[in-house]
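User: Let's play a game. I give you a shape written as tokens, and you guess the letters that built it. Ready? Here's round one.
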């Protein structure tokens, strides 16, 4: 599973980071630090949860 974060849409709310700080790391300004993330096995549900919590719809989850 992979996550893509559209950094142009990211407004720095940090809701994804609250779901899992290791998976959704943020920079010093509170914005997504990475655009593309490979989700480790066992973290699929938390990846989906973090994506669903993004108020900007900046996160997409794919296989």
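Assistant: Ready! My guess for every position:
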């Amino acid at each position: 599973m992979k996550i893509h974060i559209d950094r142009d849409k990211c407004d720095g709310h940090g809701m994804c980071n609250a779901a899992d700080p290791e998976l959704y790391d943020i920079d010093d300004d509170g914005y997504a630090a990475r655009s593309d993330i490979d989700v480790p096995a066992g973290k699929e549900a938390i990846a989906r949860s973090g994506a669903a919590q993004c108020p900007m719809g900046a996160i997409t989850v794919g296989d």
